[in-house]
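@channel sequence for tomorrow's demo:
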Amino acid sequence: MKPYTIEIDIDLPRATVIELFDDSDNMPKWQPGLQSFERLSGEPGEPGSKSKLVYLNGKHRVELIETVTERNPPDVFNGTYEWKGGRNTLDNRFIELGPERTRWQSTCTYELDGVVMKLMGMFFPNFFRKQNLMFMKNFKALCEDGTDIRDQK
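C-alpha cells (generated this afternoon):
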C-alpha cells in the first residue's frame, strides 16, 4: 500500500494535546476496541520501548506489538506496529498553529503479509485510512470535549 498522510486540527494548545496523547491511560478513551496496553520492555514511551496492545473488533482479536522509533516532544512521536498479517509505521507530527490550536499530522505506511491481508489492501485501500481518521476524530473529541468513546455505547 502507498503511504498516506491525514491530519486534524485540535482547538487546544500543543502542550495540552501532547499531554493527552502521551498518557497511555487515555488510549481506550479514543481507540475503539482497545482491551489492554501492556509495557513489554524499555523506558515507557522512549525509542526502543515495546508494548503489546490488544484490540477486539466484534469477535476478532488483534494483538499488536508497538515499538517506539522516535520521540521528540512536543513535535514528533513515531512508532511501528506489528501484528499477524502485517506491519504499519506511524509518523506523528504535532504542529503548533497558534496558542490555542494544534495540527496532528500522521503519515501511515502499511506492509501487509499473506493473501487475505494483501487482497484487503488491494480491494479496500481506504479501510485503513478511514480507521486512522476515525481514531484521530475520537482523539480530537477527547481533547476538546472530554468525550470518552466508551461512554457512547
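heads up for whoever presents: The helical segments are 14-22, 27-30, 114-123, 126-145.
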